[in-house]
TrEMBL record, chain A:
InterPro entries: CIAO1/Cia1, WD40/YVTN_repeat-like_dom_sf, WD40_PAC1, WD40_repeat_CS, WD40_repeat_dom_sf, WD40_rpt
WD repeats by residue range: 18-56, 71-103, 115-148, 160-191, 209-241, 313-353
Family membership noted in the UniProt record: Belongs to the WD repeat CIA1 family.
GO biological process: iron-sulfur cluster assembly
Pfam name, any one: WD40
Keyword Repeat belongs to the record: yes
Organism listed in the record: Linum tenue
Entry coiled-coil feature ranges: none
Name under which the protein is recorded: Probable cytosolic iron-sulfur protein assembly protein CIAO1 homolog
Function: Essential component of the cytosolic iron-sulfur (Fe/S) protein assembly machinery. Required for the maturation of extramitochondrial Fe/S proteins.
Top-level taxonomic group: Eukaryota
Keywords annotated in UniProt: Repeat, WD repeat
From TrEMBL, chain B:
GO biological process entries: protein maturation
Gene3D superfamilies: 6.10.250.1280, Fe-S cluster assembly (FSCA)
InterPro entries: FSCA_dom_sf, MIP18
Signal sequence interval, chain numbering: none
Family: Belongs to the MIP18 family.
Highest taxon of source: Eukaryota
Matches recorded under PANTHER family: CYTOSOLIC IRON-SULFUR ASSEMBLY COMPONENT 2B (PTHR12377:SF0), CYTOSOLIC IRON-SULFUR ASSEMBLY COMPONENT 2B-RELATED (PTHR12377)
Protein name per Swiss-Prot or TrEMBL: MIP18 family-like domain-containing protein
Length: 353, 162
Protein backbone atom coordinates (compact mmCIF):
# COMPACT_ATOMS: atom_id res chain seq x y z
CA UNK A 1 0.00 0.00 0.00
CA UNK A 2 1.58 3.26 -1.03
CA UNK A 3 0.44 6.03 1.27
CA UNK A 4 2.55 8.64 -0.44
CA UNK A 5 0.22 8.49 -3.42
CA UNK A 6 -2.99 8.82 -1.51
CA UNK A 7 -2.42 12.54 -1.63
CA UNK A 8 -5.19 13.82 0.57
CA UNK A 9 -4.94 14.38 4.27
CA UNK A 10 -5.65 11.76 6.85
CA UNK A 11 -7.74 12.33 9.93
CA UNK A 12 -8.57 10.14 12.90
CA UNK A 13 -12.33 10.14 13.36
CA UNK A 14 -13.74 9.23 16.75
CA UNK A 15 -16.51 6.65 16.31
CA UNK A 16 -17.44 6.02 19.94
CA UNK A 17 -16.15 6.27 23.51
CA UNK A 18 -16.72 3.20 25.69
CA UNK A 19 -17.07 4.04 29.37
CA UNK A 20 -17.64 1.74 32.30
CA UNK A 21 -14.32 0.84 33.85
CA UNK A 22 -13.77 2.63 37.16
CA UNK A 23 -9.99 2.81 36.94
CA UNK A 24 -7.40 3.11 34.17
CA UNK A 25 -7.75 0.73 31.23
CA UNK A 26 -4.41 -0.99 30.66
CA UNK A 27 -5.11 -3.06 27.59
CA UNK A 28 -7.66 -4.36 25.13
CA UNK A 29 -7.96 -7.05 22.46
CA UNK A 30 -10.23 -7.48 19.44
CA UNK A 31 -11.69 -10.97 19.16
CA UNK A 32 -10.05 -12.31 15.96
CA UNK A 33 -13.09 -14.40 15.02
CA UNK A 34 -15.37 -11.39 14.87
CA UNK A 35 -15.77 -8.43 12.59
CA UNK A 36 -17.07 -10.51 9.69
CA UNK A 37 -20.46 -10.66 7.97
CA UNK A 38 -21.69 -13.17 10.53
CA UNK A 39 -20.06 -11.95 13.70
CA UNK A 40 -20.22 -8.45 15.09
CA UNK A 41 -16.94 -7.03 16.40
CA UNK A 42 -16.08 -7.87 20.00
CA UNK A 43 -13.44 -6.30 22.24
CA UNK A 44 -12.15 -7.38 25.64
CA UNK A 45 -10.63 -4.71 27.90
CA UNK A 46 -8.90 -4.97 31.27
CA UNK A 47 -8.39 -2.47 34.04
CA UNK A 48 -6.96 -1.35 37.36
CA UNK A 49 -10.50 -1.89 38.65
CA UNK A 50 -9.67 -5.65 38.65
CA UNK A 51 -12.26 -6.46 36.01
CA UNK A 52 -12.36 -7.41 32.36
CA UNK A 53 -15.17 -6.03 30.20
CA UNK A 54 -16.50 -7.54 26.99
CA UNK A 55 -17.88 -5.06 24.47
CA UNK A 56 -19.85 -5.87 21.34
CA UNK A 57 -21.10 -3.72 18.53
CA UNK A 58 -24.80 -4.12 17.85
CA UNK A 59 -25.68 -5.25 14.32
CA UNK A 60 -28.80 -3.13 14.45
CA UNK A 61 -27.62 0.16 15.91
CA UNK A 62 -23.90 -0.13 15.05
CA UNK A 63 -23.31 1.10 18.57
CA UNK A 64 -21.00 -0.60 21.08
CA UNK A 65 -22.41 -1.94 24.36
CA UNK A 66 -20.83 -3.65 27.32
CA UNK A 67 -21.96 -7.27 27.18
CA UNK A 68 -20.24 -8.64 30.25
CA UNK A 69 -18.12 -7.68 33.23
CA UNK A 70 -15.75 -10.42 34.35
CA UNK A 71 -15.26 -9.73 38.03
CA UNK A 72 -14.54 -11.41 41.34
CA UNK A 73 -11.76 -13.51 39.88
CA UNK A 74 -8.64 -11.40 39.81
CA UNK A 75 -7.86 -9.78 43.14
CA UNK A 76 -5.64 -7.05 41.72
CA UNK A 77 -5.19 -5.02 38.53
CA UNK A 78 -5.76 -6.96 35.31
CA UNK A 79 -2.86 -5.85 33.16
CA UNK A 80 -3.40 -7.56 29.84
CA UNK A 81 -5.90 -9.68 27.94
CA UNK A 82 -5.72 -11.62 24.73
CA UNK A 83 -8.03 -13.91 22.76
CA UNK A 84 -6.90 -17.26 21.43
CA UNK A 85 -6.54 -17.27 17.59
CA UNK A 86 -9.87 -19.12 17.24
CA UNK A 87 -11.54 -16.51 19.44
CA UNK A 88 -12.92 -19.19 21.75
CA UNK A 89 -10.79 -18.47 24.82
CA UNK A 90 -9.65 -15.29 26.55
CA UNK A 91 -6.51 -15.18 28.68
CA UNK A 92 -6.13 -12.42 31.28
CA UNK A 93 -2.90 -11.56 33.13
CA UNK A 94 -3.02 -9.91 36.54
CA UNK A 95 -0.89 -8.23 39.19
CA UNK A 96 -2.29 -10.92 41.51
CA UNK A 97 0.36 -13.21 39.94
CA UNK A 98 -2.16 -15.40 38.11
CA UNK A 99 -3.34 -15.77 34.53
CA UNK A 100 -6.99 -16.69 34.08
CA UNK A 101 -8.46 -18.50 31.08
CA UNK A 102 -12.09 -17.71 30.21
CA UNK A 103 -14.51 -19.46 27.92
CA UNK A 104 -17.74 -18.09 26.52
CA UNK A 105 -20.33 -20.68 27.56
CA UNK A 106 -23.62 -19.67 25.97
CA UNK A 107 -23.10 -15.94 26.43
CA UNK A 108 -21.66 -16.32 29.91
CA UNK A 109 -17.94 -15.99 30.40
CA UNK A 110 -16.61 -18.55 32.85
CA UNK A 111 -13.13 -18.86 34.26
CA UNK A 112 -12.15 -22.37 33.21
CA UNK A 113 -8.57 -22.37 34.39
CA UNK A 114 -6.13 -20.37 36.55
CA UNK A 115 -2.41 -20.51 35.83
CA UNK A 116 -0.24 -20.01 38.88
CA UNK A 117 3.48 -20.00 39.28
CA UNK A 118 4.83 -16.51 38.78
CA UNK A 119 6.21 -14.97 41.96
CA UNK A 120 4.64 -11.59 41.42
CA UNK A 121 2.74 -9.42 38.92
CA UNK A 122 2.05 -11.03 35.53
CA UNK A 123 2.38 -8.37 32.85
CA UNK A 124 1.46 -10.00 29.55
CA UNK A 125 0.11 -13.17 27.95
CA UNK A 126 0.24 -14.43 24.35
CA UNK A 127 -1.08 -17.44 22.38
CA UNK A 128 0.93 -18.95 19.55
CA UNK A 129 -0.65 -19.20 16.08
CA UNK A 130 -1.74 -22.84 16.38
CA UNK A 131 -3.15 -22.30 19.89
CA UNK A 132 -0.96 -25.11 21.24
CA UNK A 133 1.13 -22.85 23.48
CA UNK A 134 0.56 -19.93 25.81
CA UNK A 135 3.30 -17.66 27.16
CA UNK A 136 3.25 -15.36 30.20
CA UNK A 137 5.82 -12.95 31.64
CA UNK A 138 6.24 -11.19 34.96
CA UNK A 139 8.12 -8.73 37.18
CA UNK A 140 9.79 -11.86 38.54
CA UNK A 141 12.00 -11.61 35.38
CA UNK A 142 10.85 -14.91 33.92
CA UNK A 143 8.86 -15.97 30.89
CA UNK A 144 6.75 -19.12 31.24
CA UNK A 145 5.63 -21.32 28.36
CA UNK A 146 2.51 -23.40 28.92
CA UNK A 147 1.26 -26.29 26.80
CA UNK A 148 -2.44 -26.21 26.04
CA UNK A 149 -3.89 -29.65 26.81
CA UNK A 150 -7.36 -31.02 26.17
CA UNK A 151 -10.10 -30.04 28.58
CA UNK A 152 -8.69 -26.57 29.23
CA UNK A 153 -5.70 -27.96 31.09
CA UNK A 154 -2.43 -26.05 30.97
CA UNK A 155 0.92 -27.55 31.78
CA UNK A 156 4.05 -25.55 32.35
CA UNK A 157 6.52 -26.58 29.65
CA UNK A 158 9.35 -24.21 30.47
CA UNK A 159 10.43 -21.37 32.75
CA UNK A 160 12.75 -19.09 30.80
CA UNK A 161 15.32 -17.09 32.70
CA UNK A 162 17.56 -14.51 31.18
CA UNK A 163 16.06 -11.09 31.59
CA UNK A 164 17.63 -9.20 34.47
CA UNK A 165 14.54 -7.16 35.23
CA UNK A 166 10.75 -6.97 34.96
CA UNK A 167 9.49 -8.45 31.66
CA UNK A 168 6.89 -6.09 30.23
CA UNK A 169 5.47 -7.96 27.24
CA UNK A 170 5.76 -11.21 25.34
CA UNK A 171 4.52 -11.94 21.85
CA UNK A 172 4.63 -15.04 19.68
CA UNK A 173 5.70 -14.61 16.07
CA UNK A 174 2.54 -14.53 13.89
CA UNK A 175 3.32 -17.77 12.07
CA UNK A 176 6.23 -19.56 13.76
CA UNK A 177 6.73 -20.87 17.28
CA UNK A 178 9.33 -18.26 18.14
CA UNK A 179 8.70 -16.12 21.22
CA UNK A 180 9.74 -12.51 21.75
CA UNK A 181 9.99 -10.71 25.07
CA UNK A 182 10.82 -7.13 26.02
CA UNK A 183 11.85 -5.77 29.37
CA UNK A 184 12.66 -3.06 31.93
CA UNK A 185 16.27 -4.25 31.38
CA UNK A 186 16.08 -2.42 27.99
CA UNK A 187 16.49 -5.58 25.91
CA UNK A 188 14.39 -7.69 23.57
CA UNK A 189 14.94 -11.44 23.71
CA UNK A 190 14.10 -14.08 21.13
CA UNK A 191 13.34 -17.62 22.34
CA UNK A 192 13.07 -20.82 20.31
CA UNK A 193 12.90 -24.55 20.88
CA UNK A 194 15.79 -26.81 19.91
CA UNK A 195 15.61 -30.38 18.62
CA UNK A 196 15.42 -31.82 22.12
CA UNK A 197 12.40 -29.68 23.01
CA UNK A 198 14.30 -27.25 25.24
CA UNK A 199 13.63 -23.57 24.95
CA UNK A 200 16.61 -21.20 24.73
CA UNK A 201 17.25 -17.55 24.20
CA UNK A 202 18.62 -17.44 20.65
CA UNK A 203 19.14 -13.68 20.53
CA UNK A 204 19.31 -10.71 22.88
CA UNK A 205 18.87 -7.30 21.28
CA UNK A 206 20.53 -4.77 23.55
CA UNK A 207 21.94 -1.27 23.26
CA UNK A 208 25.07 -2.52 21.52
CA UNK A 209 22.98 -3.93 18.65
CA UNK A 210 21.27 -0.58 18.07
CA UNK A 211 18.72 -1.50 20.69
CA UNK A 212 16.77 0.65 23.10
CA UNK A 213 18.33 2.65 25.93
CA UNK A 214 15.43 2.33 28.34
CA UNK A 215 12.46 0.07 29.14
CA UNK A 216 10.97 -1.60 26.07
CA UNK A 217 7.19 -1.63 26.50
CA UNK A 218 5.78 -3.42 23.43
CA UNK A 219 6.46 -5.44 20.29
CA UNK A 220 4.38 -5.79 17.12
CA UNK A 221 4.91 -7.72 13.89
CA UNK A 222 4.01 -6.72 10.36
CA UNK A 223 1.61 -8.89 8.35
CA UNK A 224 4.42 -10.81 6.66
CA UNK A 225 6.20 -11.59 9.93
CA UNK A 226 9.54 -10.51 8.52
CA UNK A 227 9.60 -7.20 10.39
CA UNK A 228 8.80 -6.11 13.92
CA UNK A 229 8.50 -2.74 15.62
CA UNK A 230 9.26 -2.05 19.29
CA UNK A 231 8.50 1.00 21.44
CA UNK A 232 10.27 2.29 24.49
CA UNK A 233 10.63 4.73 27.38
CA UNK A 234 13.65 6.01 25.39
CA UNK A 235 11.11 7.85 23.20
CA UNK A 236 11.84 5.90 20.02
CA UNK A 237 10.23 3.24 17.87
CA UNK A 238 12.64 0.76 16.34
CA UNK A 239 11.98 -1.42 13.34
CA UNK A 240 13.76 -4.76 12.97
CA UNK A 241 13.88 -7.32 10.19
CA UNK A 242 14.87 -10.93 9.76
CA UNK A 243 15.30 -13.42 6.98
CA UNK A 244 11.89 -15.07 7.09
CA UNK A 245 12.74 -17.86 4.64
CA UNK A 246 15.69 -18.78 6.78
CA UNK A 247 13.47 -18.91 9.85
CA UNK A 248 10.89 -21.05 8.06
CA UNK A 249 13.47 -23.62 7.13
CA UNK A 250 14.09 -24.07 10.84
CA UNK A 251 17.33 -22.16 11.04
CA UNK A 252 17.53 -20.94 14.63
CA UNK A 253 20.64 -18.92 13.86
CA UNK A 254 18.64 -16.31 11.94
CA UNK A 255 19.12 -12.99 13.66
CA UNK A 256 16.95 -9.90 13.80
CA UNK A 257 18.72 -6.81 12.53
CA UNK A 258 18.05 -3.14 13.16
CA UNK A 259 16.37 -1.53 10.17
CA UNK A 260 15.28 1.90 11.35
CA UNK A 261 14.90 4.10 14.45
CA UNK A 262 12.06 6.63 14.55
CA UNK A 263 13.22 9.34 16.92
CA UNK A 264 12.18 12.93 17.51
CA UNK A 265 8.47 12.13 17.16
CA UNK A 266 7.62 11.32 20.77
CA UNK A 267 8.64 13.23 23.89
CA UNK A 268 7.07 11.02 26.52
CA UNK A 269 7.12 7.25 27.04
CA UNK A 270 5.57 5.18 24.26
CA UNK A 271 3.50 2.40 25.84
CA UNK A 272 2.05 0.66 22.84
CA UNK A 273 2.69 0.05 19.16
CA UNK A 274 0.68 -1.97 16.63
CA UNK A 275 1.37 -2.70 12.98
CA UNK A 276 -1.72 -2.90 10.76
CA UNK A 277 -2.26 -5.42 7.93
CA UNK A 278 -1.71 -2.60 5.46
CA UNK A 279 1.54 -1.49 7.02
CA UNK A 280 0.45 1.47 9.15
CA UNK A 281 2.25 1.59 12.51
CA UNK A 282 0.13 3.12 15.29
CA UNK A 283 1.67 4.26 18.59
CA UNK A 284 0.09 5.25 21.91
CA UNK A 285 2.07 7.42 24.31
CA UNK A 286 2.16 9.15 27.69
CA UNK A 287 1.45 12.54 26.09
CA UNK A 288 -2.17 11.45 25.45
CA UNK A 289 -1.52 11.27 21.70
CA UNK A 290 -1.80 8.59 19.02
CA UNK A 291 0.58 8.70 16.06
CA UNK A 292 0.66 6.85 12.75
CA UNK A 293 3.73 6.02 10.68
CA UNK A 294 4.14 4.50 7.24
CA UNK A 295 7.06 3.42 5.14
CA UNK A 296 8.42 6.28 3.10
CA UNK A 297 9.44 5.65 -0.45
CA UNK A 298 11.84 8.59 -0.40
CA UNK A 299 14.79 6.83 1.11
CA UNK A 300 16.00 4.09 -1.19
CA UNK A 301 19.71 3.91 -0.49
CA UNK A 302 19.85 2.23 2.94
CA UNK A 303 16.49 0.54 2.74
CA UNK A 304 13.07 1.73 3.86
CA UNK A 305 12.57 4.60 6.26
CA UNK A 306 9.39 5.67 7.95
CA UNK A 307 7.53 8.93 8.11
CA UNK A 308 4.80 10.37 10.32
CA UNK A 309 1.43 10.10 8.61
CA UNK A 310 -0.67 11.72 11.34
CA UNK A 311 -0.50 12.81 14.97
CA UNK A 312 -3.71 12.96 16.98
CA UNK A 313 -3.11 15.15 20.03
CA UNK A 314 -5.38 14.73 23.05
CA UNK A 315 -6.74 11.44 21.69
CA UNK A 316 -7.53 10.80 25.35
CA UNK A 317 -7.51 12.98 28.50
CA UNK A 318 -4.62 10.97 29.95
CA UNK A 319 -1.88 8.55 28.89
CA UNK A 320 -2.72 6.18 26.03
CA UNK A 321 -1.84 2.68 27.22
CA UNK A 322 -2.78 0.62 24.21
CA UNK A 323 -3.56 0.95 20.50
CA UNK A 324 -4.91 -2.01 18.52
CA UNK A 325 -6.03 -2.22 14.91
CA UNK A 326 -9.22 -4.15 14.24
CA UNK A 327 -8.68 -7.53 12.56
CA UNK A 328 -12.11 -7.31 10.98
CA UNK A 329 -13.15 -6.60 7.44
CA UNK A 330 -13.25 -2.85 7.87
CA UNK A 331 -9.91 -1.37 7.17
CA UNK A 332 -8.33 1.27 9.34
CA UNK A 333 -10.58 0.86 12.36
CA UNK A 334 -8.64 1.04 15.59
CA UNK A 335 -9.25 0.98 19.33
CA UNK A 336 -7.28 2.72 22.08
CA UNK A 337 -7.50 2.75 25.87
CA UNK A 338 -6.24 5.15 28.50
CA UNK A 339 -5.55 6.05 32.12
CA UNK A 340 -8.70 8.15 31.77
CA UNK A 341 -10.73 4.91 32.08
CA UNK A 342 -12.13 4.95 28.57
CA UNK A 343 -11.76 2.99 25.36
CA UNK A 344 -12.18 4.80 22.08
CA UNK A 345 -13.03 3.37 18.69
CA UNK A 346 -11.54 5.28 15.77
CA UNK A 347 -11.47 5.26 12.02
CA UNK A 348 -8.42 6.50 10.15
CA UNK A 349 -10.07 8.23 7.22
CA UNK A 350 -8.88 10.31 4.33
CA UNK A 351 -10.46 13.74 4.43
CA UNK A 352 -11.62 14.93 1.06
CA UNK A 353 -10.06 18.17 -0.14
CA UNK B 1 23.59 6.26 68.53
CA UNK B 2 20.04 5.44 67.52
CA UNK B 3 20.11 2.14 65.69
CA UNK B 4 18.25 1.49 62.47
CA UNK B 5 17.82 5.03 61.15
CA UNK B 6 19.66 5.80 57.94
CA UNK B 7 20.38 9.33 58.92
CA UNK B 8 20.16 9.65 62.68
CA UNK B 9 21.06 13.33 62.84
CA UNK B 10 19.52 15.19 59.94
CA UNK B 11 20.06 18.89 59.51
CA UNK B 12 16.82 20.72 60.11
CA UNK B 13 16.19 24.00 58.33
CA UNK B 14 13.70 26.74 58.93
CA UNK B 15 10.52 26.63 56.93
CA UNK B 16 10.16 29.21 54.23
CA UNK B 17 7.64 31.91 54.99
CA UNK B 18 4.32 31.09 53.41
CA UNK B 19 2.96 33.53 50.90
CA UNK B 20 -0.69 34.38 51.38
CA UNK B 21 -2.73 32.92 48.61
CA UNK B 22 -6.34 33.77 47.81
CA UNK B 23 -8.69 31.15 49.24
CA UNK B 24 -9.10 28.39 46.74
CA UNK B 25 -11.99 26.00 46.24
CA UNK B 26 -11.03 22.59 47.70
CA UNK B 27 -12.01 20.62 44.61
CA UNK B 28 -10.40 22.67 41.92
CA UNK B 29 -12.30 22.65 38.66
CA UNK B 30 -10.75 19.92 36.53
CA UNK B 31 -10.87 22.08 33.47
CA UNK B 32 -10.02 25.41 35.05
CA UNK B 33 -8.08 27.51 32.64
CA UNK B 34 -5.89 28.80 35.44
CA UNK B 35 -2.48 27.27 35.24
CA UNK B 36 -0.91 25.77 38.33
CA UNK B 37 2.45 27.23 39.24
CA UNK B 38 5.52 25.95 41.04
CA UNK B 39 4.53 27.41 44.39
CA UNK B 40 1.19 25.65 44.32
CA UNK B 41 2.91 22.35 43.59
CA UNK B 42 5.37 23.07 46.40
CA UNK B 43 2.51 23.80 48.79
CA UNK B 44 1.13 20.32 48.12
CA UNK B 45 4.39 18.62 49.06
CA UNK B 46 6.28 20.83 51.50
CA UNK B 47 4.62 19.39 54.62
CA UNK B 48 5.01 15.75 53.70
CA UNK B 49 6.70 14.07 56.65
CA UNK B 50 10.01 12.37 56.10
CA UNK B 51 9.58 8.58 56.52
CA UNK B 52 12.16 8.44 59.29
CA UNK B 53 12.05 11.74 61.15
CA UNK B 54 9.33 13.96 62.59
CA UNK B 55 10.23 16.76 60.19
CA UNK B 56 8.78 17.84 56.89
CA UNK B 57 10.54 17.46 53.55
CA UNK B 58 10.82 21.25 53.47
CA UNK B 59 12.47 21.41 56.89
CA UNK B 60 15.02 18.81 55.83
CA UNK B 61 15.54 20.61 52.51
CA UNK B 62 14.63 17.43 50.69
CA UNK B 63 12.31 19.50 48.57
CA UNK B 64 12.30 23.22 47.80
CA UNK B 65 10.28 25.53 45.60
CA UNK B 66 13.17 25.99 43.18
CA UNK B 67 13.35 22.26 42.63
CA UNK B 68 9.98 22.25 40.93
CA UNK B 69 10.07 23.11 37.24
CA UNK B 70 7.23 23.69 34.86
CA UNK B 71 7.76 22.21 31.44
CA UNK B 72 5.50 24.15 29.12
CA UNK B 73 7.16 23.30 25.81
CA UNK B 74 4.06 21.57 24.55
CA UNK B 75 0.72 23.32 24.38
CA UNK B 76 -1.32 20.15 24.60
CA UNK B 77 0.21 18.58 27.67
CA UNK B 78 1.34 20.20 30.96
CA UNK B 79 4.30 18.77 32.84
CA UNK B 80 6.08 19.35 36.10
CA UNK B 81 9.49 18.06 37.00
CA UNK B 82 10.10 17.60 40.70
CA UNK B 83 13.65 17.13 41.91
CA UNK B 84 14.27 16.03 45.47
CA UNK B 85 17.46 15.72 47.48
CA UNK B 86 17.75 12.79 49.88
CA UNK B 87 19.52 13.71 53.09
CA UNK B 88 22.22 11.10 52.62
CA UNK B 89 23.73 9.49 49.50
CA UNK B 90 22.80 5.93 50.34
CA UNK B 91 19.33 6.73 51.53
CA UNK B 92 17.21 3.64 50.96
CA UNK B 93 14.21 5.79 51.79
CA UNK B 94 14.72 7.65 48.52
CA UNK B 95 12.16 5.52 46.68
CA UNK B 96 9.67 5.92 49.52
CA UNK B 97 10.09 9.71 49.47
CA UNK B 98 9.71 9.71 45.71
CA UNK B 99 6.58 7.58 46.02
CA UNK B 100 5.13 9.99 48.61
CA UNK B 101 5.70 12.90 46.25
CA UNK B 102 4.08 11.04 43.39
CA UNK B 103 1.03 9.97 45.39
CA UNK B 104 0.44 13.41 46.90
CA UNK B 105 0.62 15.11 43.52
CA UNK B 106 -1.54 12.41 41.91
CA UNK B 107 -4.22 13.11 44.52
CA UNK B 108 -3.84 16.90 44.46
CA UNK B 109 -3.30 17.98 40.87
CA UNK B 110 -5.84 17.74 38.04
CA UNK B 111 -5.21 14.57 36.03
CA UNK B 112 -4.11 16.47 32.95
CA UNK B 113 -0.78 17.28 34.65
CA UNK B 114 2.16 14.95 34.03
CA UNK B 115 4.74 14.71 36.77
CA UNK B 116 8.33 13.52 36.43
CA UNK B 117 10.21 12.86 39.66
CA UNK B 118 13.93 12.49 40.05
CA UNK B 119 16.63 12.71 42.67
CA UNK B 120 18.92 15.71 42.39
CA UNK B 121 21.84 14.66 40.16
CA UNK B 122 24.86 13.57 42.15
CA UNK B 123 23.00 13.15 45.43
CA UNK B 124 22.33 9.45 45.41
CA UNK B 125 24.44 6.36 44.86
CA UNK B 126 21.91 4.57 42.64
CA UNK B 127 20.33 7.65 41.10
CA UNK B 128 19.48 6.11 37.71
CA UNK B 129 17.85 3.06 39.26
CA UNK B 130 15.76 5.16 41.66
CA UNK B 131 14.67 7.55 38.90
CA UNK B 132 13.70 4.69 36.62
CA UNK B 133 11.47 3.11 39.26
CA UNK B 134 9.83 6.37 40.23
CA UNK B 135 8.90 7.12 36.62
CA UNK B 136 7.62 3.67 35.62
CA UNK B 137 3.89 4.05 36.17
CA UNK B 138 3.24 0.31 35.98
CA UNK B 139 5.71 -0.29 38.84
CA UNK B 140 4.20 2.58 40.81
CA UNK B 141 0.67 1.19 40.26
CA UNK B 142 1.74 -2.26 41.46
CA UNK B 143 3.52 -0.79 44.50
CA UNK B 144 0.42 1.15 45.47
CA UNK B 145 -1.55 -2.12 45.58
CA UNK B 146 0.65 -3.14 48.51
CA UNK B 147 -1.29 -2.16 51.66
CA UNK B 148 1.81 -1.91 53.87
CA UNK B 149 3.47 0.52 51.50
CA UNK B 150 0.28 2.55 51.15
CA UNK B 151 0.01 2.82 54.94
CA UNK B 152 3.58 4.09 55.16
CA UNK B 153 2.93 6.64 52.43
CA UNK B 154 -0.35 7.79 53.99
CA UNK B 155 1.39 8.33 57.30
CA UNK B 156 3.96 10.58 55.63
CA UNK B 157 1.27 12.43 53.70
CA UNK B 158 -1.05 13.07 56.66
CA UNK B 159 0.48 16.43 57.73
CA UNK B 160 0.39 17.72 54.16
CA UNK B 161 -3.38 17.78 53.80
CA UNK B 162 -3.99 20.73 56.12
Amino acid sequence: MDFDDEGSNFELKEIQTLSGHTDRVWSLAWNPATGTDDAQPVIASCSGDKTVRIWERSALTRSWDCKAVLEETHTRTVRSCTWSPSGKLLATASFDATTAIWENVGGDFQCVSTLEGHENEVKSVSWNASESLLATCSRDKTVWIWEVMPGNEFECASVLQGHTQDVKMIKWHPTMDILFSCSYDNTIKVWAEDDTGDWHCIQTIGESSNGHSSTVWAISFNAGGDKMVTCSDDLTLKVWEADIEGMRSGNNQVLWKHLSTLSGYHDRTIFSVHWSREGIIASGAADDAIRFFVESKDSVVDGPSYRLLLKKEKAHDMDVNVVQWSPGQENRVMASASDDGTIKIWELATSSN
Amino acid sequence: MVSGLINANPVVYEKKERRQRPASIPDADEYSAEAIDQLEVFDHVRDIKDPEHPYSLEELKVISEDAIEVDDRRSYVSCFRVTFTPTVEHCSMATVIGLCLRVKLMRSLPSRYKVDIRVAPGTHATEAAVNKQLNDKERIAAALENPNLVDMVDECLAPSYA
